[in-house]
Automatic annotation (TrEMBL):
The gene is tetA. Pfam families: MFS_1. This is Tetracycline resistance MFS efflux pump. The chain crosses the membrane at residues 19-42, 54-75, 87-105, 111-133, 145-164, 176-194, 226-244, 264-282, 294-311, 317-334, 355-379, 391-409. It comes from Lysobacter helvus. Residues 17-413 form the Major facilitator superfamily (MFS) profile domain. It is found in: Membrane. PANTHER family: MAJOR FACILITATOR SUPERFAMILY (MFS) PROFILE DOMAIN-CONTAINING PROTEIN (PTHR23504:SF15), MAJOR FACILITATOR SUPERFAMILY DOMAIN-CONTAINING PROTEIN 10 (PTHR23504). Gene3D superfamilies: MFS general substrate transporter like domains (1.20.1250.20). Keywords: Membrane, Transmembrane, Transmembrane helix, Transport. CDD domains: MFS_TetA (cd17388). It is a multi-pass membrane protein. It comes from the Bacteria.
Amino acid sequence: MTSDAPTGAHPGARKAATVFIFVTVLIDIMAFGLIIPVLPHLVQEMAGGDMVTAAKWVGIFGVLFAAIQFVSSPVQGAMSDRFGRRPVILLSCLGLGVDFIFMALAQTLPWLLVGRVISAIFAASFTTANAYIADVTEPSKRAQAFGMLGAAFGLGFIVGPIIGGTLSGIDIRLPFWAAAGLALVNFCYGLFVLPESLPKARRSARIDWAHAHPFGSMKLLARYPAIWGMVAVVFLLNLAHYVYPSVFVLFADAAYGWGPRTVGYVLGVVGVLSVIVNAVLVKRVVAKFGERRALLIGLSCGVVGFAIYGLAPTGAVFLMGMPIMALWALAMPATQSMVTRLVGPEVQGRVQGALTSLASLAGIIAPAIYTSVFALFIGPHAPAKLPGAPFLLACALLASAGLVAWRFIRTHAELQVDGPLPAPANPGEG
């Protein structure tokens, strides 16, 4: 139950470990997916039914969630480098299960906000899962493995939102109880089935507190200049992606009159498309075009998809843009694979924690921006009635990511990655 499955292990052991982490992430995403269609509406209900007020509160929720993760992710990464991936994932699942119960019982916005803070502290399994994949997968196959992890996200979003939207028709709090059950089931699954991926011999000798905070983790990334361009792309990708949790549910209601159940079905379709891209296309596109071109293809499709979302006059047109938007999923696995190639196993957790901190930094900035833009363009003093304005802003950000990626790829077109770059000279700093 706790056997190691390092990169050098037998292929069968590596495959089994990948399956275990796939299931772990799938169950976690299903739990989060259950509450996605209903959380903004619960906030709106607690805010007296006013959508503009609800949008502002959702923005506060998003900023605080990301701010907590910005601080906690490097700590979680450092802990997983020191103690292994398994205990961090188990603690995450247990904490989330208890927290979903807390949110199900919350009766006021401040208490619901406390619940989101607890979620942010314990939502570590996604960060650690990336380090886990790097532990058990050969460098040449990591893009495919990260694609399968993306497929777990997509599959979770197929089932979770559909069930959550359906359960909300019975009681708006019922999805939170179901999410709690899933998270606790995941804890039990991990406790009895999930193997450790990082052998004791490959762990850090101590917790690297020098880099176990956001700014220290950024300093760690600075020691690997070959990945700076990819780090910038990761930041911009996440900055654009935050348009979804920030405004999508309220946008769907304002633009097309979609309620929680319809939103659940739409997110289910998004999940189906994501699974197809991540489980089927990532491997083939990377094999044919390479990781760098796969990244550019994904970014280009994302720009076009966001433009369609922002300007779609009807729900039918919005739905037509979803297959194009789905191809954006090619970008992240390719980027993650390139990053993991360039750092050693002893710092994978801290590097993944640093990247998650970057994503959280984007999450601190993005919700306030997107919800403010949304509120402006649906409010009484809107310069134009354009609920899709936040998606157009995301489109511009993703186009910027494409320019950064293109410049970096041209600069490093001849880079051959044969193994991780050497660790910093002072082990205490790397």
